[in-house]
Amino acid sequence: MKKLASGLREERGRAALLGAALCGLLTLAASGVPGQEKDKSGVNVTVTGKDGSDVGGLVISAQATAKEAGLPLYPGARPHKDEKDDSSGAKLGLWGSSFGFKLVALKMESNDSQEKVAAFYQKALAKYGTVLNCSDSSKAQTDKDKDKIESSKKLTCGDDHPDPGGLLFKVGSKEKQRIVSVTPKGSGCIFHIVYLEAHSDDKTPA
């Protein structure tokens, strides 16, 4: 799922801070925190305060659905695996008293053309607002443009671009965004669906 990371660069600073919290939760999980549940697909940990309230948690799973990303699954699409034992989906949830982070990612393939699948998801993404077409990597941003972007919560393409010959679309805000990339494969295509949420005001991710 390494290629899915290309759509997450704008959240690097925040993700680094959340990563530190993630390490702490993983340590608690290894110690046998009350409320911890494990299965073959991942880890589900709930951190409970002295008063019995939910003060934090962690969910890691190798299973995810398009519905969890808030998007429909393209008709007839099937999971794509680069390796036999690879996972075609991943889900991560991390929350505490003052922050929340959620990531849902899927890698699928279809016998239909790149253009047909892209048109399907452009329409689906439009439900959440104006869809950004980040397919043209030649539109490089100046340092001045980047400074303006950093001070705004408005979602932009930034440095994100698809693989050669591919298409990339984004919608939402910096704190809550959905990303779809589509790359041709023979007469069909491979596509990624990503939902990313990172905020510091709600207790749990949506």
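Next protein, fold it too.
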Amino acid sequence: MEVILLERVEKLGGIGDVVNVKTGFARNYLLPNKKALRANESNRKVFEANRAKIEADNAERRTDAEKAAKGVDGKTVKLIRQASNTGQLYGSVSARDIVEALDGEGAKVTKSQVVLDRPIKNIGVHEVKVALHPEVAVTVKVNVARSPEEADLQAQGVDVLAQMFEEEAAPAAGELAPESPATAETEDAPAEAEAEASEPTETAEDEQ
């Protein structure tokens, strides 16, 4: 389906571009969200007649978004969640969770502005894109951990899972460590002495 874009759409084009998209994408996203018009003769005339106003409105929204970006860009939020020893969450972190966490930090964004391809399902520090406007995007960090202490370590750049696995592996490695030659010789000595003691000794009668 051909549509006329009313704003910049990533990977498609900018205001006024006529692009060919999948019918489902147009009907379910572009058209209902007023990001595009069907590219027919009537709509082309309507767009051209209102092009100046559409571009002016877009510029105003972009300016507002650029101002708002200063209070959002680079923000870090902490989310404490239950998780297994492998770091898998018992549940997930959604766009709504991120919006609420940012709101608690004084950064106002909407759920539709949080670009999250799929829910976060493991602990760690995740970078998430927030599109405040089609031409203005910022990045926030979402620190998902099992405790505030763990979140602080992750904020310092510590890989808590790797550290935990190393600590668990250390005792196991000690148990499997090969014996030193000295230890092996010491343990073998009693066995050799016992073997010598059990050997028959020659008597005078045997010599005759």
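About the second fold: Residues 125 and 143 are 4 Å apart (CA to CA).
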